[in-house]
Design goal:
CATH topology of one domain: Immunoglobulin-like
CATH class of one domain: Mainly Beta
Number of helices: 2
Strand content: 35-45%
Number of strands: 10
Structural class: alpha+beta
Strand order of the largest sheet: 6-1-9-10
Radius of gyration: 28 Å
């Protein structure tokens, strides 16, 4: 037979546990970033270029008929060089290496910047084939960031290359 004191004790303990969980489910208020701060996320995945060469007529003739592709492309992909400036000052620079055992996979980067809300001039430059000098993708834009706003910088060839969203 269960004693009334045991039932009362269980009710008190369960009630205290529920109050503990209920309090910490809503308090203290959590802020991922301070109230006057905006966030810039540089996040992209991209395949580096390949240096294909055109085979000569002699090379093609020496190959079996089923292997006569006009271009000879290596399996590996190029590293990708990426730079970002914030108000004319270097903020981030990296060289992304391709993944995969043969260096033929995608190159990725993720970097997060917390900045005070305000207006910034952002410049992002990328070279996805390091055989060619310079940068073949460049995006410069002046953006006004509100408090708690998140600006994502990404790359999509279908959207014209680098874009801010």
């Amino acid at each position: 037979m269960v004693k009334p004191a045991a039932i009362l004790g269980q009710a008190i303990l369960y009630g205290a546990f529920a109050a503990f969980i209920g309090y910490f489910a809503t308090s203290p208020t959590y802020h991922q970033i301070p109230d006057d701060v905006a966030l810039i996320k540089l996040s992209m995945s991209h395949l580096g270029g390949r240096e294909c060469r055109k085979r000569t007529a002699e090379e093609l003739a020496a190959l079996p008929p089923n292997m006569r592709a006009p271009l000879d492309c290596p399996r590996g992909r190029s590293d990708i060089k990426l730079q970002m400036d914030l108000d004319g000052k270097p903020a981030f620079e990296t060289v992304m290496h391709p993944t995969g055992l043969s260096g033929d996979g995608i190159s990725t980067v993720y970097k997060r910047f917390e900045v005070k809300a305000g207006t910034y001039k952002i410049a992002v430059r990328m070279n996805d084939n390091l055989v060619n000098p310079g940068f073949n993708h460049v995006k410069e834009e002046q953006v006004t960031l509100k408090p708690a706003q998140v600006l994502v910088i990404d790359f999509n060839p279908d959207k014209g290359g680098l874009f801010f969203q």
